[in-house]
Amino acid sequence: MPEPKKRKGMHARRYVETRYNGTQWRKYRRAFLSRHPLCVECGRVAEVVDHITPVRLGGDFWAPSNHQSMCHRCHNSKSGKESHARVAYDKNEGKQR
Question: Could you tell me the sign of the dihedral formed by the alpha carbons of 51, 56, 59, 63, in that order?
Fold first, then answer.
């Protein structure tokens, strides 16, 4: 019988983007989800605060107007679509057009 997967240690579960690891974001996230407890897509219990416009595409990290509550399933679906979307970049400046 295969061994059950072991949970990763806390240090291994941290996000690459350091802003998500800080106390300020964790408190903000908890407060946002308490005010917006349901997923905007399907109505299930929300677990993720999603940036409507991704930060890497110019969305404001801290603007509440750029946040929405989502369940993991809907967030993963949205993020997957965004990561596979074609984005036009200016080859000379490396910026989005």
Answer: positive
**Do residues 39 and 54 lie in contact, with contact meaning Cβ atoms separated by under 8 Å?**
no
Q: Please give the structure tokens belonging to residue 85.
A: 């979307």
d(CA 36, CA 68): 8
Tell me, what DSSP letter sits at residue 18? G
Q: Identify whether 2 is part of a domain.
A: no
State the Cα–Cα distance between residues 63 and 54, nearest whole angstrom: 12
Which CATH number does the domain housing residue 48 bear?
A: 3.40.1800
pLDDT of 90 higher than 50: no
pLDDT of residue 64: 96
pLDDT given at position 45: 98
Q: Is there a domain that residue 26 lies in?
A: yes
